[in-house]
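Supplementary Methods S3. Input chains for the assembly prediction are listed below.
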Amino acid sequence: MPTSNAHPQLRIDIVSIFPDYLAPLELSLVGKAREAGQIDVRIHDLRDCTQDRHRTVDDTPYGGGPGMVMLPEPWGDALDSILGSDPSRTPVLVVPTPSGERFTQGHAAKWALGDWLIFACGRYEGIDSRVMEHFGERIHVAEVSLGDYVLAGGEVAALAVTEAVVRLLPGVLGNSESVVDDSFAPGRMAHLVEGPVYTKPPLWRGLEVPEVLLSG
Ligand code: SAM
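Predicted structure tokens for the full assembly:
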């Protein structure tokens, strides 16, 4: 269902072994955008694509070292199934990883113009690299990092990227002007951040709103 003639509905698929982690996508701005049909969010449990009784998604790493690595087979099956569900769209497979390119407002702006984001949320020591190599030959794969720190899984990154993208979609924010004035917004704010903001009352606990803002 298109949201307007100019912009197709954005579809977002998120694959995780903790689908409940994505529950915040039912709330607030993203939740409202879902209700309004502006986005189509589908959450998938990676374990549904396992073949064994224990629903195994990981194994020991080749080359040794601590921790476990996510198996390629469940990822291959999960992503094949998602990709096969709509050949008319142009997907971007977003793989959160600390070794990826730093995620920026520029990525968000670009992906808000697209029609399909698929997130592969890693856990443990990450996803077998052949998954990214294989799908990179079929579709655009973007390995992105939230910053120079290590999270326990890709779900928080999927939430952050989804929110950054969805708030840029036409009609999602009440006041579309606020997107233009945002920190890092392409154009005059590209390398700038928004200054401090104030509201009423003009005097609070002895602290005044700067005079220049009071004059309108
Ligand atoms: N062993 C990996 C390393 O040192 O780079 C860290 C793996 S981390 C424990 C598990 C998963 O969390 C990653 O596969 C990735 O999906 C996610 N993750 C962790 N830190 C992240 C970050 N800074 N940005 C994006 N995703 C991150």
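Residues 97 and 145 are 5 Å apart (CA to CA). Residues 72-84 form the longest helix (13 residues).
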